[in-house]
Amino acid sequence: MQFKKTIPEDEALKKIRHYCGYQERCHSEVKDKLYSFGLYKKQVETILSSLIEDNFLNEERFAIQYAGGKFRMKHWGRKKIEYELRQKNVSSFCIKLGLKEIPPQDYADCLNRLATTKWTSLEGEQHFSRLAKTQAYLMQKGYESALIQKELQSLSGKK
Fold it and tell me: What's the rounded Cα separation, in Å, for the pair 71 and 59?
């Protein structure tokens, strides 16, 4: 049986500071990384509190960065962003804060652009099939059903 090598607490702190300085991280990612170093719960909690005090770790800042980045780069909708943040154990307050940072007009424009692109790519399909595939695509991207329905109505009305 092989045992995991444990690194000293001061070396772990140095490594985790670099890890947090490279990119915004949530608490659960940092905790998992610290446990992978072979540290115990008390050591992990001490290092986490140190990171928070030194502003290397900030869940609000993470949620804002994550939501904005996923919206701008991957064109995710609010539902998908919220789901992913919940998977990372981010608090509801921070999730709401992150989602507020997405400008409503940009959100509507992005939904329109995605819907139009998908709709035109399915030009040879039957009308019902086109509607279903476009709706499924937008749902998978994480957009709200009511917004998708409005968008599909305007697209099918254009023909």
Answer: 18
Return the SS3 of 30. Answer: helix
Are 95 and 78 contacting, i.e. CB atoms less than 8 angstroms apart? no
- Give the whole-number percent of the chain exceeding pLDDT 90: 79
89-140 per-position pLDDT tens digit: 999 999 999 999 999 999 999 999 999 999 999 998 899 999 999 999 999 9
State residue 158's pLDDT score: 64
Neighbours of 139 (CB within 10 A): 15
Using DSSP, state whether 26 is helix, strand or coil. coil
Chain mean position to CA 70: 6
Burial class (CB in 10 A: 0-12, 13-18, 19+), 13: buried
3-state helix, strand, coil in the chain (%, to 5): 75, 0, 25
72-77, long-range: CB within 8 Å, 24+ apart, which pairs? 75/110, 75/114, 75/141, 76/141, 76/142, 77/107, 77/111, 77/138, 77/141, 77/142, 77/143, 77/144
Dihedral of CA 18/51/100/93: which sign? positive
Q: In this structure, how many other beta carbons lie within 10 angstroms of the beta carbon of residue 102?
A: 20
